[in-house]
Amino acid sequence: MSGGKPLPSAADVEEDDGSDSDQDEAARIMRGEVEEPAAEPEPEPAPRPARPPPPAFKFSTFLYVFLGLLGLWMLIDTSARNSIACALGMVNPGCPSGTQPWGLYWLIGFNSNYLLLTMALAGAIEMLVTSLAYNYTTNWVKAAKVQKWSSAFRKVQMEAIRSGKKNRIAALKPHQERLTRLSGEVSIAQFKGMAITYFLLILIYTWVGLVIAGAPSVHPYSNPTLVALGTGSTIDLMGHVGGLPIPWWFIIFSLYTVPFSLVFRRILKHFWLRRYEAQNRSPPPPASEAAGRSA
């Protein structure tokens, strides 16, 4: 038909449909009817690892901590230090309980007649107890192995550092972490023995000082703190060394404790190693002797 209107082509129809859909989309946006995209499901959180059970209560650990804190308190507070030392028994008017000749004073005090002997026996008792505590908390074989491994590791580590190869240094890190952990275990065991040693050191030194200071009250008509040196001269145990605020009894008592400590620790270590050999049916490593000398 020549006078009629031409039919729309397929391209025109698609263009009209596209423009209509754009208009409809614009109208929905104006009305606030925009469809929100579907939210993606949140990933489930990874399950938490099970909490390890709390460590069991150990009376030995409680005792070490208690004695360490008690020793620190005694070091700071003079009245507390004297009160605890007086509880061991002594004759000293300055004690809160007055004169109580019982306990340790009854055992080795000798009525303040032999102060040097009292000091020697008190030093022996102190070093025996501290050596027992140190021997109980120390694993001599483990300490010797850690010392031997540390010496060998230092040599290998220095060679790796000199070589400048990062892969060699990185390969030593796991071994260094393990060695650090073992060294920490040995150090903690030694600190446990030091807690008992620290407490007894303050306690026995204070007790000896109070016994010597109270000796004149036992013998008011003489001076029992005067000690003959064998050369015709005497020293006063309560006198000070030169111009220092250190009494003579402190120096003499310290000299008593050194040989007792060496002897008791050597003997106890010998029996500990023999017991280890009997239980494991193998001799301990040779480095244990070196560890004992360094300790």
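the 2nd protein, sequnce then structure:
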Amino acid sequence: MSKIITVWGNPGCGKSMFCCCLAKVLTANKDKAIIINADSSTPMLPVWMPERILETGASIGNVLTGLEINTALVAERVTILKEYPFIGVMGYAAGENPFSYPELKYEKIKLFITEAAKLVDYIILDCSSNMLNFFTPTAIEAADLTVRIITPDLRGLNYLRAHRPLLTDDKFHYDSHLTFAGLARPFHAIDEMNHLIGGFDGLLPYAKEIERCGTGGQMFKALAYCNQRYINSLKLVRERLVQSDDGPAEDGLSSETQTCHESGYTEPTPKREHYAENEYTEPDYSAENDAFAGNGGFTDQDSMATPDAWDAEIPAASATGAENHRQKAPAGKEKKDYGHGILK
């Protein structure tokens, strides 16, 4: 049965990057996932795939405001990633804004999420920080697991204090949300913020290589630069999803994921693994990609990540795609390059 993961938090906390990394972790065994972003203030299709020209027909807005929402309509609007054919994305297209479509309705959002969940193994809902966008509270309500990402500073603290009263209803399961410290840096007062926020379940440390992937249109390459603390947080999400099925952990999932307690941040000493040697190495999807052949796409660059001052003892990841972010010229409009191969 499909699992719905909702990710929400304050602006600029790294939600969208976390969703991309999580999708790659969850599809490592060729399960299928769809990332859905319904924040019309920042259309995500051109951010995820800057080298592809997608018409507004691929926009999620056409689905959420349609007269009838069904599985076939949702599948038709899913855009498949060329390099990762087990991951699909849905979002607003370039040039769209909050006034491009009528106001979203609760019933249609709920139906949309239900229909999308019939298509794949995992639905990842990348939510807007604005609770006035009905998609965010509806996604939290519909989630099997909710991840709350907060920057460990006054911005994150006051965002959480302002929005917690809006989620007091039992249907939002506020107390069961996983809480991660997003873009954590060495100068952040993690212990103090941990106490004020109520406890972090994990850290998502900032790294300049990850930021470059985000600003250079290579968000799905960022997992290669995540250090062990970030990887542990991703594993914790997958462990919770496995536990919800009352099944044993798969693929040797570590139970030594870090935890933050009210008394301060503590972490066991798990075996440190070089990223390139763990189960999240870049897979070879050359065979699967035959169905999505075409020009464009990201090209790997020659670059090596360097250890962050935050966690210098963790070996740097050996990966590519951090320095040169120039994209090839678009090969032309790809009108029918979405909605294929996503059905179970």
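Residues 144 and 244 are 8 Å apart (CA to CA). The chain has one domain: 3-267.
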